[in-house]
Amino acid sequence: MPAFERVTRRSLLRGGAVMLGTAMAAPLVAACGGGGQGGNAKELTFWNFYGPNPQGDARSKWFTDLVAAWNANNDVKVKLHYLPVSEYLAGTALQTAFSAGQGPDIFLLSPGDFLRYHNGRVLTDLTPYLKPDQIADFDGGVLDTRTVDGKVYGLPMEQEPLAVYYSVAAFEQAKLSEGDLPATWDQWLDVAAKLTTKDRFGLLFETIPGYYQNFTWYPFMWMGGGSAVPESGKPGFDVPAVHNALKFWQDAVTTKVAPRKPQGDGAGNGPANLGSGYVAMQQSGIWTVSEMEQQKKDFPYGVFPLPVPDGGTYTTDVGGWAFVANAKGANPEAAATFIAWALGATDEAGVERGRQWNTVVKTNLPARKSVQEAARAAGAFDKPALKVFLDEVVPGGRGEPRYTPEVYKAVSDAIQATQLGGADPATAAADAASKIDAFLKGYQGAAML
Amino acid sequence: MPPCSETRAAPGDRPALAAAAPAAPGAPSPRWSRRRREALAGYAFVAPDLLGLLVFVGLPMVLAIGVSLFSVDGFGGYTFAGLDNFRQMAGDTQLWQSVKVTLTYVVTFVPIGFVVSLGLALLVRDHFPGVGLVRTLFFLPHVISLVVVGVIWQFLLADKQGAVPALLRPAGLGDVSFLGNPALALGSLVVISIWFLMGYQMLILLGGLKDIPKEYEEAARVDGASSWQRFRHVIWPLLRPTSFFVLVNSTVGAVTGLQAFDLVYVLTKGGPANSTSTVVFYIYQQAFTFNNYGYAAALTTVVVAFLVVATGLMFGLTRGGRFDAD
User: Fold this and answer.
1) Is B96 near chain A, with CB under 8 Å?
2) Predicted pLDDT at B23
3) Do A99 and B72 touch (CB under 8 A)?
4) What is the pLDDT of residue A5?
């Protein structure tokens, strides 16, 4: 009798058991694999969302030029691997690669995701590859959220602070002038109400749940003295400062001066929201300056710092991506050396590279003092919007916090529940605080800042 | 008669009889009866698909069961956790919220989608000028990528400036936010899902309707049956196997299908306030936001097991949609 006719119930069960056993053993086998830890490979992969991209734009060129300059003088070559920004930020490629032990040797990381990778022990300590003057060249506090126990695990490419953009035309239509720019939250809602029409909202905050929404909401929490986790002996999330911040965003929606849904891919997109006339004021980052320049060149707009609550202290959130090296990569030492050279070199070429990236290719504030000086000397901050960022927005800025995904989610749920779900801010904050406290009791990773 | 024909056996021949025939050079072995050869050919035809199913569906499913027994950190760290991942589900309030969202989605999308699709199928069943074009138009949304569907509807439903709020403005509903209001977001996804899938389901139901002999309806008409009576007593019973397929297919799709993830991902990211966070989206978040791969695999295992049992139960109870004893 042929084999295919001899399949019995018993043999099926036996086969199933073997498959299940194999499945249970597979994770252990995979765990033993890994991706060539501590090797000395001659080629490093660098995953990023800039280049070489199909458009071959200036950002892409900066990356390809950077790698070409390195490869011309080093035995260990770097190979760029481009991922579309949507895939890099919200896709599965990076996590899947690390899960399979095939993570890239060098990759881009934001502070919001730092702890996930650091606590997963895949980040290389860059400190041995940096001279003290290189570390000192970074702007005050900019390395804090990339440092654990005095060791630097990532070098930032840029600083991206948040501010408020406004439409000059909308202000004029509403008979408002620069003198009416709001300085407090109450004034902000009043001005937003005056700017709201049947086709336009007065003000835009992010409403899509995610890391970006949290990033844009944190300054409101900080301005009243709140924090997502207990800091310096102060209580954590369930405090009046947090209730007020949640309520402020809620009021903006319930009074209908702010939309429940942004246009385009979110409230970080200036041209799709402010530039399209969908809103008259929009909280966004410094990147919007270059986006408006490229996509809405003739749109007149201005920038002002985030207003503060009564009795609060001005602050804003300063984001920015960093180069990090995979500690389980093919050659972590070479990867760290590359990063120290690419973003930390203090020679003329290194400073010029930083200036180009921050003020020619993009509109950022440089993370390094020497680069800031070079950019200022070259007149990079003469543009009115950038001048506001440099002189008014950044002073008082605070680095984007590094929280674990569990803390992020608790905060995100509180923002969503109050802003769009109509929940009581105090109740939502208490609920989030209990989740955060329960998580912190068993947390053993690096400090949250 | 050529030698090879001597090895042929009638359907139902016993292998022993075939084995008694003399072998000829170049002819199949006499041990291979026609039945066996047909079986072999059948398996050969099925093999590529079966192999694909085993490698790309069966094996990952079995591996997922294995992973569900571990605590996985997403960076190569596996710790045996036994059934901890399964126990965790009981106290996971976010999961139960997602289950509620999914059930609401299923009990609204499946029946409404079915009724709309059946209505369309009945509408385009009989020939009239331009029927082909109408069928094509109804089916058209289904050929568009779900991501593009999401983007199109995002424009249509945009607060204040979208086409739908603009149309509703005269009725005083211009300020309604379809995707930003927790009370409306899931309903909006249901409507978009129906719009996307109605053409596909219509096509299947149309096939079922076309299979019903016209004579039955004619006989009922001659006997004086009204349109509703003809549908209720002639069409509906004969359409049950097709309806069963459509209902099972759309139920499984509503729980785990593309529209339960892609649309949510593009349009709402599970918001506002978790009101569109389906189970599949929650599983995705557990795996790729929190790196809880073990827990995500456990959730997947339970969802698949639930669907297998539910589908089996529906199949068993209805005997594949026949319902009536026949």
Assistant:
1) no
2) 47
3) yes
4) 44
pLDDT of amino acid A340? 97
CA B23 to chain A, closest CA, distance in angstroms equals 18
Q: Which helix (H) or strand (E) holds A433?
A: helix A425-441
> Is B269 in Cβ contact with A208 (below 8 Å)?
yes
- Residue A403 makes CB contacts below 8 A (sequence gap 6+) with A112, A115, A228, A229, A411, A448
Higher-scoring residue by pLDDT: A7, B226: B226
Residue A44: pLDDT over 70: yes
- CA B21-B24-B29 angle, 5° bins: 65
Q: pLDDT tens digits, residue range A351-404?
A: 999 999 999 988 889 999 999 999 999 998 888 999 999 899 988 899 899 999
> pLDDT, tens digit, for every residue of A148-197?
999 999 999 999 999 999 999 999 999 999 999 999 999 999 999 999 99
- Do residues A414 and A246 touch, judged by C-beta distance below 8 A? yes
Contact B73 A259 (CB under 8 A): no
Fold of A43-159+320-393: D-Maltodextrin-Binding Protein; domain 2 (3.40.190)
Regions of chain B where pLDDT drops below 50? 1-23, 325-326
Q: Quote the pLDDT of residue B2.
A: 38
Tokens of B201: 């389901």
| Mean pLDDT, residues A45-70 | 94
Q: Is the Cβ–Cβ distance between B204 and B246 less than 8 Å?
A: yes
CB contact (8 A) between residue A278 and residue B161: yes
- Pick among A88, A107, A256, A420 to test the B interface (most B CBs inside 10 A): A420
Beta-carbon separation of A210 and B181 below 8 A: no
Tens-place pLDDT, residues A317-331: 999 999 999 999 999
Collect all residues of chain B within an 8 Å Cβ-Cβ radius of residue A199.
160-161
End-to-end CA distance of chain B: 45
Comparing CB atoms, the residue among B73, B273, B290 nearest residue A420 is B273
What ipTM describes this predicted complex? 0.83
Chain A residues closer than 8 Å to B14 by CB: none
Nearest-neighbour CA in chain A from B279: distance (Å): 16
Class of domain A161-314+403-441: alpha beta
CB-hemisphere CA count at 13 Å for B262? 17
The residue ranges of every structural domain in chain B are 1-51, 84-318
- Which helix (H) or strand (E) segment holds residue A85: the answer is helix A85-90
So where are chain A's domains? 43-159+320-393, 161-314+403-441
Residue range B84-318 forms a domain whose CATH class is mainly alpha
Where does residue B33 rank: exposed (0-12), middle (13-18), buried (19+ CB within 10 A)? buried
Asked if B66's CB is within 8 angstroms of A27's CB, the reply is yes
Q: Do B269 and A101 touch (CB under 8 A)?
A: no
Query: How much is the pLDDT for B132?
Result: 93
Contact B158 A121 (CB under 8 A): no
Taking a C-beta distance cutoff of 8 angstroms, is the pair A402, A111 a contact?
Answer: yes
A322 - beta bridge partners?
Answer: A109, A156
Nearest in space to B117 (alpha carbons), one of B234, B200, B218, B185: B200
Cβ contacts of A27 on chain B, cutoff 8 Å: 66-67, 70, 72, 78
Instruction: Tell me the pTM.
Output: 0.84
Three-state helix/strand/coil letters over B281-318 = HHHHHHHHCCCCHHHHHHHHHHHHHHHHHHHHHHHHHH
